[in-house]
Design brief:
By secondary structure, the protein is α+β, with helices and mostly antiparallel strands. The chain has 7 helices and 26 strands. An 8-stranded antiparallel beta barrel has the order 5-6-9-10-12-11-8-7. Strands 15-16 form a two-stranded antiparallel ribbon. The chain is globular.
Length: about 475
Amino acid sequence: MKFFKLSVLALATTLALSACGDDNDSNTSTNNGSGTPGIPSQPPVDNSLSDLEQAKEMIRTAKLFVSDNQAVTQAYEGASAIITDQQDDRLGYALDVPNDLFYYMQENNLSRLTAANIIALANDEAFAVALGNIALIPAADFLATLNSDGQFALTGTTEVEIEDYEYDYNSQTGQFEEIVTVEDTFDLSFDGYQNALSSNTSTDNFKGSLGFKSIKIGTGKEAVLLSSTTKGATVNGQFSEKVTFNDEFDFAEANAAGVTLEKGVITLAKLRLEANDSVIEARNFAIEIMDINKELANGTLAVRTIPYKIDLTGQMIKQKPATNVTLTLNALANAEDIKKFITVDNAGNMVEGAGSFVGMEVLLAIKGDVSKNDQLTIPLDFQAQLERTARNTIELKGLTASVDGKTLYITGESNLNDDYGVVSSQFVIKQNNASITLNVDEDNDFITDNNGKLGDIIVNGKDFGDLMDNDGKITAKFSDNSLIVL
């Protein structure tokens, strides 16, 4: 089993978090270090507005959110992808090239592989197997090196041919013969690529790195550029026993012998992906992980790796539609609770112990500008705090959403079933002293009463109107008989 494989593309495009997982006596804490979003609080009250006007202003703001959401959706419907399917394929192959060369050099005890060496190996079966369906036509500056401690470096330019295979029946020989066809060809350049994720030294406290100055894939309008620092990613692992890392952090044999990762930390200083009219940048990224293990009934040791802390700051810039958005994510689960409450069942699945749960707190912020149409952009400012407070409860402690200078504040709670699926939710939307409570079912549809009412519009404890759903038409009717259609 691979422990993990670093993917620079995954690090660059991580814009979402999936996590599951406090015993009531356990504590969770939030890392409020640099880049972490603040815990949202309700904005101040505008006391210049009457209670009725506060009720109407909250609905006007909600209407602005609805109309702007529709306009933004329309603006991005025809937007080009950040990378095309072909660019995505090329990126995957480009990241395979250094790994394939590393394995070939390691297996053949080579410390140096030049362009001339690669050309001479064009018909070598072992080299072809190492590269799979990739063929290299290197320029004179292409050079791969591997030192005695397993540290790999690559620089220079090569043409890459992605080969596909067909089989044609030869009537003269009576056999099917393999025919190679070229599926894609592109240029690939490495500047300062260094992989120090392997070591021939046995240790229980491994420190490694992976980085490059740039990787350019393709040319012209089809080019994809990855850029970072020479040691952009660092990996630190504390293990239960000494382990030798000589296969890209693949330690299946070590797991089988009962060696587990007590704490692993992966950090990324900066990684930038440029393609077409878009830029995605992971400015800061850190993830902490650990192993849990259990000896199964058949005598084998099941080892599972769990992430329990994530910090991320990323940015996306796009020319059309004009976009410049920064995302910050901070998620933390209690590591001691994971050790106490998470186990592996006999089927090899991770499960929580009965009557216990692993608490998690998530802080998320999104800020920047997105397009409303060809002429206008909308400033966004969104912050949210989520917390798992019981085995079947996730609380939205606070969410502030601001668009075009208007802000809503939302709190809520979601109830989960035993499979961690959401079965119902309740949200309280507030602005100034006005509020409305909305309920959502397991299908993510809003719940109405028999008359189609979604909820009462309340200000300072008094009812100033109803929010109604009439066959999909959402209307607010106020105590002065005025209406606002959302």
